[in-house]
Amino acid sequence: MSQTAETRKHRTPAQDRSEKKRARILHEARIAFAQEGFEAANVRDIAAAAGTRHSMIRYHFGTKEQLWREAVRDMFQMLDQALALDDSDGEPSGGVEGYKDFLRRYIRHCAAHPEHARIMISEAMRGGERLNWIVENFLAPRRDLVERQMATAGNIQQMPKMHPLSLVYIVSSICQMPYVLAKESEALFDVDVQAPELVDAHIESVINLFFQYRESDASGQ
């Protein structure tokens, strides 16, 4: 039994309720920060959306800045769990099938949690202390892992050849953007891009785009 499971086993009902309330607050905080940005997001509105009082947010998190930090910390933990990077070695599986599995996991996470990319875009556009905090605590520690993942992808024969930096942002953009721009897709195409069948279709399209390119190129030589 993992340490987390063991900890949960010995929690009291009151502790369970407190953790669920905290998770609800963090969820609503991420939605607010993603939609409105840090400055415009209102803590009282977050409390109301979470079904709690403003004083409870101050009790659990203190300041708005600390609430934002905990919401961001939580969203990166969810990403690690989705990509299976929270296991003992923190390494994704390799090879063609391993990279396809990575893309599937990442796209499903992006579809379920578009607020992650929206928060990152908002902070990257502004720059400053909050972005620096994200880079220092979450992006920089993952840089070696991302570079190894991209190197693995670059060495896969079926993948198109490109600069590693380009590959990082091409992969993140192609996986994230349909869900970041979900309102645009709904207005333009009258579809819900987060519907399971469209998420599956996007996964298939991305995998085909990357892996059939080199296969077609090789067959034409």
Automatic annotation (TrEMBL):
InterPro entries from the UniProt entry: Homeodomain-like_sf, HTH-type_TetR-like_transc_reg, HTH_TetR, NicS_C, Tet_transcr_reg_TetR-rel_C_sf
Mind telling me which Pfam families this protein's record contains? TetR_C_29, TetR_N
> Could you identify this protein by its name?
HTH tetR-type domain-containing protein
List, alphabetically, the SUPFAM superfamilies matched.
Answer: Homeodomain-like, Tetracyclin repressor-like, C-terminal domain
Where does the HTH tetR-type domain start and stop, copy by copy? 19-79
> Any coiled-coil ranges, and where?
none
* Skewed-composition ranges (Basic and acidic residues): 13-22
Q: Write the record's keywords in alphabetical order, separated by commas.
A: DNA-binding
Native source species: Hyphomonas atlantica
Instruction: Tell me the DNA-binding residue spans.
Output: 42-61
Asked whether the keyword Transit peptide is assigned, the reply is no
Q: Which GO terms describe its molecular function?
A: DNA binding
Q: Does the keyword DNA-binding apply?
A: yes
